[in-house]
Amino acid sequence: MTTEQEALLKHLNDVNDVTIYSVWDKEFATYGRVLTGADFSEAIRYMVQYTDIPAEGNIYVPSDERMEQQAIGQYLKDVVYGGMPIQIGYCNGKNSNFSAFEYHKGSEINVACCDMMLSLGHLWDVRDNTYDNDDAQVFFVPEGTAVVMYETTLHFAPLKVSDEGFRGIVVLPRDTNTPLEKAPETCSCGDAGVVGEDPEKKLLLQKNKWVIAHPDSNIAKNDGAYTGIKGADKVIRY
């Protein structure tokens, strides 16, 4: 990190009552890893030049064809995802709180186009489809840094560190976070060995997207996400 980023991280810790770690700290190891050796410079330039930060809230685009056609797209598909089809999109916004968490079957890559933070949790801490917000940890992601988050990592939209907001590249297995072809409650295997309901089915909101939300969150109120977050709807100051 630069001297300025180290000073920013110190400031974030001074103004918050939770510890803000860096993704370079050992505490990040159970959530993911920093992706080195991949050149995201072209994609970051594209993000800054051609994508906007909304005046309020967040915007998420699952797939951006122009980034997917860049050289980094083929590299990620062949090397990081082992030949599996992927999508490259983005999440831009002005989020400051963590009132929901999601997870996927397959790792997610986030690339910070500016300094930002991530609120993360462990899937193994989910009990009976509930998760305690006090178990989450917050990590500072310096501008230009790419992180791979394992599929056991709970996450959601990044957190801003300035009034301007954030821009973040999001890489996932193809078709993740797109509409389901059928509602989860209609899915059944008939007589093919099913002996009971999988409780995880209640969390499925979109393709390859399982969500646990705070009752006061927009995704619970507007999109019908399962309300299983216990504790306060936390806000991270900057």
Account of the protein in words:
By secondary structure, the protein is of the alpha+beta class. It has one domain: Jelly Rolls, CATH 2.60.120.10. The protein is built from 5 helices and 18 strands. The longest helix is centred in the first third of the chain and has 13 residues. It is globular, with a radius of gyration of 18 Å. The two termini are 18 Å apart. The mean pLDDT is 94.
Task: Give the topology.
Elements: H1 3-15, E1 20-22, E2 32-34, H2 41-50, E3 58-61, H3 65-68, H4 71-80, E4 86-93, E5 97-98, E6 100-103, E7 108-112, E8 116-122, E9 131-132, E10 137-141, E11 146-149, E12 153-154, E13 166-173, E14 204-206, E15 209-213, H5 218-223, E16 226-227, E17 229-230, E18 234-235
Parallel strand pairs: 1-10, 9-17, 15-16
Antiparallel strand pairs: 2-11, 3-4, 4-13, 5-18, 6-15, 7-11, 7-13, 8-10, 8-12, 14-15
Uncertain spans: none
Q: What is the N-to-C order of secondary-structure elements (H for helix, E for strand)?
A: HEEHEHHEEEEEEEEEEEEHEEE
CATH topology: Jelly Rolls
What structural class do you assign from the helix and strand content?
alpha+beta
Per CATH, the class reads Mainly Beta
Number of structural domains: 1
The chain-level mean pLDDT equals 94
Major sheet: 6 strands, antiparallel
Characteristics:
alpha+beta; Jelly Rolls; six-stranded antiparallel sheet; four-stranded mixed sheet
Can I get a quick summary?
The chain is of the alpha+beta class and about 240 residues long. It contains five helices and 18 strands.
